[in-house]
Specification:
The protein is an alpha+beta fold. 17% of the residues lie in helices and 40% in strands.
Length: 584
């Protein structure tokens, strides 16, 4: 029996699913077809140029056999070539009219400039006392506007000013019109060039895939065609809504999807993934990872072609028919099982049925290989514009604290330490911060795995006030013999909690760090002997951190003020100049 041929545009086939990766997407489409007994050739046209031809695979359900899968590219007459030609001619006519109008504007510009020149010559003659036969002024002007007649000169000057003002105004409008016309001509020329480039020879490249199927009897089958397509990406975005009264945070987790693949995804079941799709069917090779001592800077280091650990390969050849290049025959022929019971495939062994999972659940537990299923279908057009989809809304319990650096800013900044108690991996990305439903600021959410903690800044909070008292310096000498210069510094900060809740506040201040044994810095209050050792005081503790800065960690009751003081001395020889001393 002679085989039948069926043709359809792949973009008209319903979407099975779309998985969006960081720089591409995997698209699956359902193709429902009725097969008559014998051999049938199904041609799917309209493949986007962004499709990776090596990634195309075919699978499905039904009582039939995949005989061959072939990817083809051909040059065909453009369906809109005639329309583009008419559009091009219309642009050319419009461009010609605009250029004629521009030429007329320039001609009028030249005439007005000549009129101004003639007026200037007449004015120079009228206001000059010199008379000669060579004057080129009309006799009428000489008799009525003689330089001897002051009245006549004044009348002429008024007329001259009015006429010059009128000419200047006309020139101004002409110049504006000329610039506008030149801009319009530039736009038309650009459109014409683009249209000419698109039209080319009047032909376009058509990409298609031919699937040869064989059925023992008439039957309906469903084919799933999948392919990886470039020019698609996604990134995370968060809305962090903080409620100070309840001490809670609602984290709205979004995905911003952008694609210019050449095909629209209408009502698609979308998943977002951070994995890197692997088009090949074999696992990558892991080479030896050598380490050793660095010998010299001029030695060239060899580059290893290692593979990042923790990345799960997304093989696209499993249970699929990969497309042979250049009409290459698929090596094997596999038959369907019972109708609508098993997946059929053109090359690899059958897969077991996938496990059912809840919508919008994290499919993989690793932060750098996470995937999410969007609960609702979404439509993402090919417009290279970001479209927002909701991944999840997560309830979190933040631990609020405040940080102040009085030396650099008089503001106090609210921060939230949050444990990611959800099962979602949070990818690093920008966040809009809302405090009690009021937009506060923009911040970032760091990459955080489930059960990990992260800290995010929530902006300035005026409910914690820092009062900086004037710095006190006492100058003197130290030592009986050397008489070194001795400077005693005292800083006082008053921290006031105006809230109705207990507040945790961290205040930081610098302590000078000496770079010379002759320059000594001694901290007297509080008694900080060594770094990273807590020194308690009435409302918390203080510590000297690794940057030689003091940190006061205070727990302040409601409507309470706490005084923090720092006293240190600096000693140095009398004849030495010291840089970096704190100023008054």
């Amino acid at each position: 029996m002679e085989g039948s041929i069926s043709e359809m545009n792949i973009k008209s086939c319903s979407l099975h699913s779309v998985v969006v990766y960081k720089d591409r997407a995997e698209v699956k489409r359902n193709v429902s077809v009725f097969l008559k007994a014998g051999e049938t050739e199904l041609k799917l046209t309209g493949l986007s140029k962004s499709v990776d031809s090596d990634s195309i695979r075919v699978e499905g359900c039904g009582n039939a056999t995949i005989v061959d899968v072939i990817y083809e590219m051909s040059e065909e007459k453009s369906s809109d070539a005639e329309q583009k030609n008419e559009e091009f001619q219309s642009l050319e006519r419009e461009l010609e009219e605009k250029e004629k109008e521009l030429s007329f504007i320039k001609y009028r510009h030249t005439l007005i400039e000549r009129q101004k020149g003639m007026l200037k010559e007449i004015a120079e003659h009228v206001t000059s006392e010199k008379k000669s036969d060579s004057d080129k002024v009309d006799v009428h002007f000489q008799s009525n506007l003689s330089p001897v007649s002051i009245k006549g000169v004044m009348i002429f000057m008024r007329r001259y000013e009015d006429k010059m003002a009128d000419l200047d105004e006309r020139l101004f409008h002409l110049n504006s019109h000329e610039k506008k016309m030149e801009a319009e001509i530039g736009v038309l020329k650009e459109k014409s060039s683009q249209l000419m480039a698109k039209s080319g020879t009047g032909k376009e490249t058509v990409r298609s895939v031919r699937i040869v199927l064989k059925a023992a009897e008439d039957s309906d089958v469903i084919i799933i065609v999948s392919y990886v397509i470039n020019n698609a990406s996604w990134s995370p975005l968060y809305d962090a809504r903080v409620f100070t009264k309840d001490k809670t945070m609602k984290l709205h987790y979004y995905g911003l999807i952008k694609q210019s693949t050449g095909e629209d995804w209408d009502n698609a079941s979308i998943s977002l993934s951070t994995a890197q799709p692997d088009i090949g069917g074999s696992p990558p090779s892991l080479e030896v990872h050598h380490i050793g001592f660095e010998r010299a800077r001029f030695v060239t280091r060899g580059k290893s072609r290692g593979v990042s650990l923790g990345m799960t390969a997304m093989s696209l050849s499993s249970a699929s028919s990969r497309v042979p290049r250049n009409r290459r025959q698929a090596p094997d022929i596999h038959e369907y099982g019972e109708p609508h019971k098993d997946l059929f495939s053109g090359s690899a062994p059958r897969r077991s049925a996938p496990l059912e999972v809840d919508e919008s659940k994290v499919a993989t537990g690793q932060l750098y290989n996470a995937s999410f299923t969007i609960p609702r279908t979404a439509s993402i057009p090919s417009d290279n514009t970001e479209h927002k989809v909701t991944v999840a809304i997560i309830d979190l319990e933040p631990d609020f604290s405040y940080t102040s650096v009085p030396r650099l800013s008089s503001s106090t900044f609210l921060q939230a330490a949050v444990k990611n108690s959800s099962e979602y991996a949070l990818l690093g990305g920008p966040a809009n911060i809302f405090l009690d439903n009021n937009f506060l600021s923009k911040s970032t959410i760091p990459s955080t795995s489930p059960n990990e903690e992260f800290t995010t800044s929530l902006g300035v909070d005026d409910s914690i006030r820092i009062i900086v008292q004037p710095m006190n310096i006492v100058r003197g000498t130290a030592g009986r013999i050397s008489k070194n210069n001795h400077l005693m510094y005292r800083f006082v900060y008053i921290v006031k909690n105006t809230q109705a809740n207990v507040a945790k506040v961290k205040v930081l201040e610098q302590i000078p760090l000496s770079s010379d044994d002759k320059l000594k810095v001694v901290v007297h209050d509080p008694e900080l002997k060594k770094p990273n050792i807590n020194v308690p005081f009435s409302h918390g503790h203080c510590v000297l951190n690794d940057d030689n800065n003091i940190e006061w960690h205070c727990t302040i009751p409601p409507d309470t003020s706490v005084e923090l003081s720092l006293v240190y001395s600096i000693d140095f020889p009398p004849n030495d100049m010291v840089t970096g001393l704190p100023n008054c």
